[in-house]
Amino acid sequence: MDISRFFYRLFLVDSENLPTTFIGSAFPVTPDGGLLTCRHVVDLSIPSGHAIAVYDPVISRFSRISRCPVLSVNPEVDIAYLPNAFEHPKTEFFPILSPSQLKIGEDVYTFGYFSIGGGPENVEQGYFSGRIVNFFRHEYEVDQASLMLPFPVLEGMSGSPVLTYHNGPKLAGIAIGNRSSRILAHEIFEFKDGQTEFKETINRIIEFGVAYHPAAIIQFLSRTGVKGFIVSDQKVEVQALE
């Protein structure tokens, strides 16, 4: 897979098209250059003269996104679609895995960009993988159907694709944030005359990444009128995807 054609960084740029803030990640989900990301990444207050832009490695510069993001009427749905985000023809995109094919324990992975603090000069990249831990909110709230990842979603990775391999790479989710859980690390007891006089408990916080399930992605795209996305469990021929 050609990483430069499937994984993108979003920035705020100033009037001279220079980046001021790294805001998150995005990826293509339709064959006309449409990108999927998180609502909280792009639904923000933009200073005068600034704009959201995607860094396009094909032309080695920032492409300002002129059209408004497509959002759900439900403000709790943290997905956004950026139509025709590029200044040139683009045919690469991720086909979406048929929701019924995704199982707990499935191997998933992502490649994402992150920056602690949001500075455009400190953006790093990384590969993360593991097995789906759990599904939740999928039985009664399809637009909120989610899955738990075995790795955290670092700052800036919101909007990254969660992928699996099923007759070729398929989209299995979109990373949106984290869930924290507390586990017991140590307990210290002191006894005096057979009675507990002192007890100290030390807990450790662990974080699991959270992503929307394919069912939620499909419902969002369908309800917002997005065209051209593909849902399949079969091999889909997409340029540069293998």
Low-confidence stretches: none
- What is the number of helical segments per DSSP (H or I, 4+ residues)? 2
Sequence of secondary-structure elements: EEEHEEEEEEEEEEEEHE
Order of strands across the biggest sheet? 5-4-1-2-3-7-6
**Percent of residues in helical segments?**
under 10%
Given helix and strand content, the structural type is: mainly beta
Computed over alpha carbons, the radius of gyration is 20 Å
Give a description of the structure.
- The structure is a single chain.
- With 242 residues, this protein is mainly beta.
- The mean pLDDT is 87.
- Helices cover 6% and strands 45% of the residues.
- The longest helix has 10 residues, at 214-223.
- It contains two helices and 16 strands.
- The strands form four sheets. Strands 5-4-1-2-3-7-6 form a seven-stranded antiparallel beta sheet. It has a five-stranded antiparallel beta sheet with strand order 11-12-15-14-13.
Key structural traits:
single chain, 242 residues, mainly beta, Thrombin, subunit H, seven-stranded antiparallel β-sheet, five-stranded antiparallel β-sheet, 2 helices, 16 strands, 45% strand
